[in-house]
Amino acid sequence: FFAQYMQNPVADGGNMVDINWFQPFRISDVSSMKFDRVVVSVDSAQKPNEINDPSAFLKFGIIGKSKYLIDCYCERKVYPETKEALIAFCNDGHRTTDLIIEDANTGSSLLQELPNEHKLYGITIIPISHGGIKKEIRFLTATGAFSNRSFYFPKDATWYPNFESQLMQF
Fold it and tell me: pTM of the predicted model, to two decimals?
């Protein structure tokens, strides 16, 4: 069951991703980095139970064609708490310039409410529609971009081991 449905244990080298595609950098260097843009990608959820998927936010600092994963949030909370956590996440550390939100379920609510949130003024909010394409197929199409080695991950961040484990299980 765990191997087939939960992808745990993970096959050597991962499932759809090769961890060697991602270049390391030190999380301590983030505070001095000057990014062209700071993009937050949001996959929101609405139930706090252990059996439900968590809300996940990823913050990428972009310099040219290089993308640095500079922060990660992954929690199970009810919608109002998730919304407040997202607002804080966007303003913590390097302030977000672009916010990408999947236009489905609670993401649709965020897309309606966040443009009126004064703490997010100046941030471009971008809705993304998956068009009915399954998450696994969308992820598979993204692996080409990952394999070009332009993504940098802070392998010394406290949250990184959990992030890598989830990435490799996908």
Answer: 0.86
